[in-house]
Structure formats: C-alpha cells, structure tokens
Design a protein that fits this description.
Length: 95
C-alpha cells in the first residue's frame, strides 16, 4: 500500500499549529497565535515567514495604537494544503 506524502511545510509542529488555528478563523494577530501556541516570538516569526513564503499565509503588517501589529490569514492555497494534509493523515490512520 502506498501513502500520499505528508506536506513538508505542514509537517512541523508549530507550522501545523498555526495553520490549524487559522483554518477556523478569518484572521488572527501575532500575539493571539503566540499565546495559543506557546511558541517563542523568534520561532513563531520564522515559522510564519516559512508559511508566507510557501503561499499558505497572507501577512499584513500595520500599526495599532502606535505599536506594530501583524495579522495572519490563511490563503486558499493554505486551506487546500491543510485539507490535503488532514486527508493524508486519515489515510495513514486507516491501516
């Protein structure tokens, strides 16, 4: 039996956590994701950049009350990748 390969972008604990959070939200800011994942600021920043470069996230940087505010939103490509990842995991679990 042959299995579909797992997406290497999503097969990372923190990146998968970020995408899993965003799949049910329209968008979330960096601080919210930081609190929910328990990641360090530096690691979360790197993983968000990786997801953005893969085309899975749209990142918008603005200012809120004179402080930088980073918002993340899952793209259609990101949703499709997440759905494919979940489908692949389900196939693995069926055996």
């Amino acid at each position: 039996m042959s299995f579909a390969p797992l997406d290497p972008i999503l097969h990372n604990q923190l990146r998968l956590a970020v995408v899993s959070l965003l799949v049910s939200l329209e968008e979330a800011d960096f601080t919210f994701i930081l609190e929910k994942t328990g990641a360090t600021r530096g690691n979360l920043s790197v993983q968000i950049t990786n997801l953005q470069e893969a085309g899975y996230l749209k990142v918008t940087k603005t200012f809120k009350d004179n402080y930088p505010n980073t918002k993340c939103q899952l793209t259609a490509k990101g949703v499709k990748a997440f759905e494919g990842y979940v489908k692949a995991i389900k196939e693995y679990l069926k055996t």
